[in-house]
Each structure stands twice: as C-alpha cells, then as structure tokens.
Amino acid sequence: MNSTRLKRRIFILCWCAYAGAYLCRTNLSIVVPFLIEDLGWDKGTVGLLGSIFFWVYAFGQLINGYIGDRINTKLFIFFSLLLSSVINIVLGFVVSKFIFTILWGVNGFLLSMLWGPIIRILGLWFPKEESNKIGVGISTSMFAGYLVYWGPIGQFIRNTNWRLAFYIPGILVAFFSLCWLIALPSKEEKIDRESGRIPVKQLLSPGLIFIALTCMAQGTIKESIGLWTPTILSDTARSIPDFTMFIPIMGFSGLLSAGWLNYRFNHREEFTVLLLFSLTLISNILLFLLLGLNVYLTICLLGVSLAILYGANALLLANIPLRFVAYGGGSTVAGFLDFSSYTGSAIASIITGNLATNFSWRSVVLLWCIASLAGILSVYLSQKNIKSQT
Fold first, then answer.
1. What is the CATH number of the domain that holds 104?
2. Which of 114, 196, 223, 335 could lock onto 191 through a cystine, CB 3.0 to 4.6 A?
3. CA dist 210 to 207, 216, 270, 381, Å?
4. Is the pLDDT of residue 191 over 70?
5. pLDDT at site 125
6. Of 310, 312, 269, 297, which Cα lies nearest the Cα of 141?
7. What domain range is 155 assigned to?
8. Residue 193 has pLDDT above 50, yes or no
9. Domains in the chain: how many in total?
10. Computed over its alpha carbons, how large is the radius of gyration of the chain?
11. pTM of the shown model
C-alpha cells in the first residue's frame, strides 16, 4: 500500500473513532426532555449529570493525555471504544438515577482516552505542513453525534423509544472498535524518549496557560449549546422543529471556514481564534436580545455561535497540540487543553441548569456573553507568549 493510501486509511480510522465517541456522549442531549418528563428529573439534576460527565472527562483528559504519549495508543483507544459502547448499551436498561449517574461518569472517563492519543497518531503519520488540514479535518468528526441525534434519526428515536439513543450507538461503536483493532497499523515514535519529551513544567508557561483559559471559555459556551439546545427550543418555542439538524451543519461549515481563515492568516491560530471569539460575542448579544422572538431565528443564532466555536475548538485543541508532537508531547498538550475546555463545560453545566430553573434562558445567554469576553481577553494575552514555547 502506498504512503498516500495508508495515510488516508489512518485518517479515516481516527475520524471514525472520534465520531464514535461523540455518538456515545451527545445522545444525552436528546434524552434530556424524557429524563425530565418520564423520570421526573428537574433541570438542575440534569445539569448535575452533565457536570459530572464533564468533570470526569476533564480530569480524564489530563491523565490520559499524559499516558497517551507513553503507551500503545492503538490498544488504548480500542479499549476506550469497546468499554464505552458496553456502558451505553447498559444505560438503555437503567432506571435508577444513582446508577445512571455513576455509569455516565464512567463513560466520560472512557471517552477521555481518545483525543490526546488520536492527536499523537495523526502527528506521527502526517507532516507538519498538513497540520492545519488534519487538525480541522479530524475536528469535523465531532458533528457525527449532532447530525445523528438532531436530524431525522433523532426524531425517529424521540417518536419511538428514547432508550434507542443508547442501544444504537453502543452496538455501532462496539463493532467499529474491532475494525479499529484490525485495520490500524502501528508506528513507533522516532524521537528520543528521554530528551525528546516535553517537560511537564512547560504546561505552566504563560502562553499555554492563557490558551488553556481560552479553551475554558469556549468549552463553557460550546458544550452548553450542545447539551441544552433541544431543551431551550422546547421551553421557548414549545416544539423542536426538524430544522434543528441545520445547527450541526452550520457548525460543520463554521469549522471549515475557520480552517480557511487560519490558512489565510498564515497559520496564526491565536489571531484567528481572537477573531472567532469576537464574532461569538456579537452572535450571543443578538441571541440575548432576540431569544424567543422566533424559533427559526433562535436556531440560526445558536447555530452561528456553535459554528464559530467549533472552528475555534479545532484550532485550540487540534492545531496547537499538533505543534508539540515532534517533541513527544502532542497527546499531553492535547489532554491539558481539552481538560481546560471541559473544566469550563463542567462549571457551566450545573450553572446553566440552575440559571434556567431559577431565572430564564436569557440569563444563560448572558453567561455565554461573559465567557466570550473572557475568551477574547485570554487569547489576546496568549499571542505574545505561545510562539516562543514551540
């Protein structure tokens, strides 16, 4: 097999692996209304469930990102996918709130085993010149779950049995995990394992700390939109139109646009992210002012915000960590930045649920505006530092 075909196979396998991870986690977003209606949960309880997942996922990223630079990533990812698929199938039978919460937290840890090792694999197989294309390309896998659950398949699940949202991804991902184990070739790192490793103290350098704060800000907004959009539409419009499937499509377009912008700005990721956060702030201000006025307008504004943030997410969590693969720290940096992103998500998840319960969804959008401002400030401060770290 020639080099081009082999690299294409590597990329497709990595893409499908992370798409599978999203199938096993975004399913929660469409079952939230049923947890509230059928099982009697309130929004605060659902927010706690999301927060537990994000906290476990965040610390899992920190741990597994570090491990991912030091072990066999092929087997590491295989066990992550297989065990997560089993957890999802089991969740379809669970009625206990306590057991559901514990299993969902375990699922979060298992899925945290993927991103850092996948970045390492891609960094080893693809040259630095292709990092922008590869970073943006692998990030498109995140839309798989949203396209499945917010489109016709999600509508089918809602109209038949919401527990299918756990059975279907569990079976599909279990099958793919075997395909991964069989089809992925191995490649050893060629750098010195002692002198080549990125020092852990470098994670505490000003440049990466400010990037981490930027990741925290984008995680606060992006995951809130991803988790709560069906519920926001249900509460403000009393319905969830099929048009919601255009939100992940808009997100996909935003991600590709971010890659194009970054290319036009000569791969200056920090500058591109600064522009994207500025656009996010404008979109959130408009959403704050116009929320509930028209369901399709609300969907468009949520879609625009999500699109912009997915673009920023790709640059922050894929392109920047890919800079460090040559130093043996690609998985570690990816895990650290993803940890930061989901720390923001975890904090925002429970706050969002309580704000929506005790105040209104407009107060949640105000939180997103504040997070947008924080992201603008932190990425601005990072620009003078991050280049010197690589």
1. 1.20.1250.20
2. 196
3. 5, 10, 10, 7
4. no
5. 87
6. 310
7. 3-188+195-389
8. no
9. 1
10. 20
11. 0.80
